Amino acid sequence: MDDLVLVTGGAGFVGSHVVDLLVLAGVRVRVIDSVTPEAHGARRPVYLRDDVEYVEADVRDRAAAARAVRGVDAVCHQAAKVGLGQDFADAPDYAAHNDLGTAQLLAALHERGFAGRLVLASSMVVYGEGRYHCARHGIVPAPPREPDALARGAWEPLCPECSAPLVPEAVPEDAPLDPRNVYAATKLHQEHLCAAFAREHPDVEYCALRYHNVYGPRMPRDTPYAGVASIFRSALAAGRVPRVFEDGNQLRDFVHVSDVARANVIALTAPVPVAGAFNVASGDPRSVADMARALAGPSGPAPDVTGDFRLGDVRHVFASPERAAEVLGFRAEIPFGRGMREFAAAPLRDPATAAAA
């Protein structure tokens, strides 16, 4: 394959694994990534490759984006500020990195007359709360959880019609989208921007990969912007007990980064392009406390279940992987137990003050 693929954020956690797999598949790769200390700590990542072209620049810089997209046949857009953040004061940074960064990339693609595949790294956060079933009313939307209820430890959402307990179910891609924090809102806006771009450019083949809780080597450590797996892993490495919010029984789908990277490569290189949104998930939901215990191992410390909460968090969200299997041809391969055992000993990135890639 002689195509040139641009990976934005290709020095980051997921992006660098996508780069590795593309190179192994014989694909020429260019990366645009600012490789800033805010994302990567004090040192340049040791895993950056000599056989890849790196444009060390911010995708929000129109001139840099124009240089990066020159001559590319496909784009894998990974660059983003991730995580729930610390509080609403982070909102401008999320909008700048995720909304403006995507807009500048798309404008650069427009100006060069791009025609090819566009794969967006989206997220399960666009769903907000997951899918719920009421015994009396069927599938119902879970209303936002109220601060007073959370303060009482009433974690589970109730039916908006009868206030009965709801049963969580796997979320399909056609579920209503209902982002419930700033990060989630910007990820959905990325989807909207890319979809609008594809509608106006008929030769562009666009799909969004909605990652669930990704974990694995190269996650950033010691940052509040990392995923929960990285936060727990950092705590254990520092000799601290992982602190689990609520009662620890909130369900998520933990998917290994190598599987996520493989989903991207399939979307970029499959003989027949696919369009639309796809859950990238294991299909094996586990609780947050399960994950903390798996990382600690049988001889490690039990997690500290604090009862604390954050208003931006949702209770349960896990995925149906069936559309990705049937249409994209992707199924996760690394089981939870094995993946967590490997991650417990895997290297993390240097400490960082923010995760912007």
The side-by-side strand order for the widest beta sheet comes to: 3-2-1-4-5-9-15
Unreliable residue stretches: 353-357
Structure classification:
alpha/beta
β-strand percent reads: 15-25%
Oligomer: single chain
Helix percent reads: 25-40%
The main β sheet shows up as: 7 strands, parallel
Calculate the terminal CA-CA distance, rounded to whole Å. Answer: 27 Å
Tally of extended strands? 18
Could you state the order of secondary-structure elements as H and E?
A: EHEHEHEHEEEHEHEEEHEEEHEEHEHHE
Dominant shape: globular
Backbone CA Rg: 20 Å
Q: Could you report the average pLDDT, rounded to the nearest whole number?
A: 92
Descriptive key words:
globular, 7-stranded parallel beta sheet, 11 helices, single chain, 18% strand, 357 residues, 3-stranded antiparallel beta sheet, 33% helix, alpha/beta, disordered C terminus
Detailed description of the structure:
There is one protein chain. The protein has 357 residues and is of the alpha/beta class. 33% of the residues lie in helices and 18% in strands. The chain has eleven helices and 18 strands. It has a seven-stranded parallel beta sheet, sandwiched between helices. It has a three-stranded antiparallel beta sheet with strand order 7-6-8, with no helix packed on it. Strands 10-14 form a two-stranded parallel sheet. The longest helix is centred in the N-terminal third of the chain and has 21 residues. The C terminus is likely disordered.
